[in-house]
Amino acid sequence: MLNCDRPPMNRNDCETLNARGGIDGLNEFCENQEIVYLNSTPQTADSTIYCWGDGSFSIEKGTGNGKHTYSFPRDTCLRTNNGIIELEITMIVFKRCAAGYSVNRIGTPISIRLRPKIELAIPNPICENTSFTVRNTSCGNDIDARITCQYTFGTQTSSSCGSSVTFQFPQSGSVPLEYTMSNRCGSRVFKQDIAVIGLPKVKAEILSGVQVINGENLVCLSGGGSVQLQGKNSQNSTRFRWTVSPTTGTNWSPRQDTCCPILRFSAAGTYTVTLEVDNQCQKPSRETLTFKVLSAQSLSLQSQNDACLPFNYRFTPIAGATYERLFNGTTVGNFDPNAGFNADFGQHIIIAKLNNECGNQERRDTFIVEAAREVSFLLPTADTTVCQSNIPIAFLTNLTDGRFTISPNTALPKRGDTTFFTPSVSGTFILIFRRGTGVCEKRQRAA
Predict the structure, then answer these.
(1) 342 Cβ partners below 8 Å, 6+ apart?
(2) What is the pTM of this model?
(3) Any idea what the Cα angle at residue 30 is, between residues 28 and 32, rounded to 5°?
(4) Distance of alpha carbon 152 from alpha carbon 175, whole angstroms
(5) Most confident of the following: 41-45, 94-98, 286-290, 329-333
């Protein structure tokens, strides 16, 4: 049996066979094109075997012509020299006789040109307003092949058959790509919708925790000092990064790499917060916010003891605070604590106020200024001696808003404005009546 992989050597047991023949037409054909091999051997033969060079063969009776169509897998082109396969067709004529057999063969080279095989390397991501290059490693991409190419990428076109072509799109969205590659053996078409990613556009927003006054973002520590931030309305953004300067006195919750964190302040000052957003395009967009963090200043007002005329009321004020006074229930107006005022006899109410964007504070103090008045006993009129008894003795003074003490200490019951003493025990008792306090205190003594 004849074998195309190991064709027999020429042999002439019967008669000499002179294999003659060739291809009908040129020696270069396209895949899937039928090839006719004309057998013009002058002698008669039993059969002719055609080894087509692609692993297949056919057998014809006598010296019949051979026909064959070459077909290859789609990726064969990539394993060839620019889409051309060089083969050799071997024609073998064979004849048997009593003496044995005669065989003769000839080889004919042939070139099979394949249809183009498109191979494009499209970068990912493709970003708006950014040049990108499509790498073309398609097969059959050589000048001799008389290749024609056509890119249609959205509204942009190119007829380049080179190894690369560059495009740029001004807007994001889905853009259809169609690439057609043709040679004389046919065409291939590649179609794909390409996603053009928009560049990130940052939008840093404040959701809560801020008062906007005269264009400033004010944060009150007295209100918790927490600011809810938001970056999710940033366009075309998949990555977020918040930073704050200075960092001392700040804390992020839950993290700085989320779209909508909470920033907590614990110290007053001016802070700069920056949001940076990005996506696969690696062209970040940034926006900065400024916060003025305030703490409500502590307001205090020292308590003033009751005083006696003459009395000048003054003290060191707290910066930013205002001070108002009322005299005997009537508003007098504001005053300067550094200068103070000479207090008249009566009740004085001092009102301190400290107001800022973070709240209003108020403190009050009340004191009485009085004049010293002499006191005297009406009963007894002077030192006196009484007999021991259980009969109460009345004590009366010219002023009733004072207080009696007696030594040794004895109960001094009071009915109305009159104080009583019961001399139930013998001895000497010292009676003192006091009115006023401090320098205003006046007293009278009797025994």
Answers:
(1) 310, 311, 312, 313
(2) 0.58
(3) 135
(4) 10
(5) 286-290
57 and 131 together in one domain: no
226: buried, middle or exposed (CB in 10 Å: 19+, 13-18, 0-12)?
middle
Do residues 18 and 108 both lie within one domain? yes
Q: Residue 301 domain-assigned?
A: no
DSSP secondary structure, 289-351, as one string:
EEEEEE-PPP--------EESSEEE--PPPTT-EEEEEETTEEEEE--TTT-EEEPSEEEEEE
Residue type, 49: I
**Would you say residue 237 lies in a domain?**
yes
Residue 94 and residue 19 share a domain: yes
- CB of 48 closer than 8 Å to CB of 66: yes
* Residue 155 burial (C-beta neighbours within 10 Å; 0-12, 13-18, 19+): exposed
Evaluate the omega torsion of the peptide bond into residue 109 and state whether it is cis, within 30 degrees of 0.
Answer: no
In which band, very low, low, confident or very high, does the pLDDT at 322 lie, cut at 50, 70 and 90? Answer: very high
Task: Tell me, yes or no, whether 231 and 193 share the same domain.
Answer: no
Tokens of 291: 């916060």
User: Are 193 and 209 found together in one domain?
Assistant: no
Same domain (yes/no): 241, 271? yes
Per the structure, the count of domains in the chain is 5
Structural domain of 21: 11-113
